Amino acid sequence: MLTEERYAIILRILEEKKAVTVLDLTKALDASESTVRRDLTALHKSGRLYKVYGGATSIDNNYSNAEEDMKTKNDLFPEEKIAIAKKAASLIKRKDFVYIDAGTTTLHLIDFITETSAVFVTNGMQHASKLAAKGFKVFIIGGAVKAITEAVVGTEALNNLKSYNFTKGFFGTNGISMKSGFSTPDAEEGTIKGAALSRCKNAYVLADQSKFNKISPITFAHISSATIITGKLTDIKYRDYTTILEGE
């Protein structure tokens, strides 16, 4: 089969399904995995699809205003999230004053924190409970609770943040884009994320591969505002903003 014929089939499948795995394409094209990966790389570079870890998504599939609940998100990419969380926890040092954003990967982060002299502030209900149960000194900002993400948001929360200056902050995101930065579906939650991140000396966004080349309605920070910690980076344009886990 000619290269352009394979390209046409790949793009037709993506038009129908919006996302496809390398394994699916090897079967559909009767081609080797290395051939499929080369095709996806070429199509990504030419702007006809987005190459992601293990497959590809269509160009028009990069915008989403969906917001899953904590349980649903926790079941997605668990191994990568745990590895990212371990790396992030290792960055917390003696006497750090740390902000931890609500989210599933940041919740995993707490499992691996060992620095007992650090002090923590969070807007995550589960995060505060987990930190307290481990014996850490923790403050939770006041405000309204967003049920689906169990995050504290609103004007009161925003006012609480104005008195804090963090040495480090760890954040979740729904989307990462060179053009649109870090983004999230909810305006209130985006406001809190942006305000907290702006008050961090060093900010880190913990993101699995599903978050890259995705855009949600509300941008809460520019791509250069934080260092991204991820598992395996497949899109080199993010390299200057990213810490990739060792061994990946």
Produce the secondary structure layout:
Layout: H1 3-17, E1 19-21, H2 22-29, H3 33-45, E2 50-52, E3 55-57, H4 70-74, H5 78-89, E4 97-100, H6 104-111, E5 119-122, H7 125-133, E6 137-140, E7 144-146, E8 151-153, H8 155-161, E9 166-171, E10 175-177, E11 181-184, H9 187-198, E12 200-206, E13 218-221, E14 227-230, E15 242-244
Parallel strand pairs: 4-5, 4-9, 5-6, 9-12, 12-14, 14-15
Antiparallel strand pairs: 1-3, 2-3, 7-8, 10-11, 11-13
Helix pairs in contact: 2-3, 5-6, 6-7
What this model shows, in words?
With 248 residues, the chain is of the alpha/beta class. It has 2 domains: 3-61, Arc Repressor Mutant, subunit A (Orthogonal Bundle); 70-244, 3-Layer(aba) Sandwich (Rossmann fold). The protein has helices at residues 3-17, 22-29, 33-45, 70-74, 78-89, 104-111, 125-133, 155-161, 187-198, and strands at 19-21, 50-52, 55-57, 97-100, 119-122, 137-140, 144-146, 151-153, 166-171, 175-177, 181-184, 200-206, 218-221, 227-230, 242-244. The strands form 4 sheets. A 7-stranded parallel sheet has the order 6-5-4-9-12-14-15, sandwiched between helices. It has a 3-stranded antiparallel sheet with strand order 1-3-2. The protein has a 3-stranded antiparallel sheet with strand order 10-11-13. Helix 7 links the parallel strand 5 (119-122) and strand 6. The model has no long low-confidence stretch (mean pLDDT 90).
